[in-house]
Amino acid sequence: MNELSVSRFIAAPPATVWDAMVNRQPEWWCPRPWSVEIIAQDRFAGGRSAMIMRGPDGEEMPQEGIMLLWDEGRRFASTDAIVGDLEPAGPFMIGIWEVEPEGEGTRYTARARHWSADACRQHEEMGFVQGWEACAAQLAELCETM
User: Fold this and answer.
1) Other CB atoms within 10 A of residue 21 CB
2) 30 vs 19, 47, 101, CA distance in Å?
3) Three-state DSSP class for 93?
4) Which residues contact 115 (CB under 8 A, 6 or more apart)?
5) 5: Cβ contacts below 8 Å, ≥ 6 apart
6) Cα 109 to chain center, whole Å?
7) Cβ atoms within 10 Å of 139's Cβ, excluding its own
8) Per-residue model confidence as pLDDT tens digits over 31-58
9) What is the Cα–Cα distance from 65 to 84, expressed in whole angstroms?
């Protein structure tokens, strides 16, 4: 499987982490100083997932796709392989974000599954580990101070 992932223990209950994951995305979704504007995040399979990530120098990276899974309180998944009314798009990945209880806190895991080894390698070279670990740290900071 062409998967990249990050995992982090967060010293907060799963319900707190889930709430921050889905309701406070602009506060953790992009590594600072980048930011994100959530355009749509329909909380059901087949719903729209759209956002614009913005960089400190005016860069804009729009992302459009659909939700593949919404398992309330546990995990959600989206892809850029399908947009709009089930229109195929140039796929890059399936993203999966999940929480599960671990001891007195929560295990947060984020995965990116790719269609090819080349796409996986490209994502890794783009700084996947550093970027997604920074996001996980921002999520942990948010949850542990809520």
Assistant:
1) 24
2) 17, 22, 24
3) coil
4) 2, 81, 91, 92, 93
5) 109, 110, 111, 112
6) 10
7) 26
8) 999 999 999 999 999 999 999 999 999 9
9) 7
